[in-house]
Amino acid sequence: MHEWINSLLAISLVAVLSGCQFPDDPNQTLNKIRKTHRLKAGVCLNHTASSDEMALLKTLAKHLNAEVIWFSDPQDVLYRRLQDYKIDIVACAIHQDSPWSEILAFTVPYDKNDHAAYVLAVPPGENAWLKQVNEFIEKQRTIQHAARD
């Protein structure tokens, strides 16, 4: 009897999960960028975005066949905009261990030094978008390593 119930549960779980699209973007961030050809990117008003960060965002936009729409505000304002899904990504020399990582989604590090690992922030729960950005960062890292060799 227990084996039958366990089998039924396993089959039900497979059926339910096969209908899921994972990773998913509940607010359709990646689809909106692809559809509108616009990447809404925030840079900190009180922090001059490094040329590396700006170049990374421009290259990401090009990769997505999109233009960058820039927003320049204080970091906390940009983070609230991310939470409200008003912008798509933020670059502000964000440290990987920032307490905001519990509220927002952080990418894999795009840069590291002896003191910190730097990440980009994207809206929370937008897993397809986060996956896309992470894969892009990894690809850029591979290109940079190949260029050095």
UniProtKB/TrEMBL annotation:
Domain of life: Bacteria
Name the record gives this protein: Lipoprotein
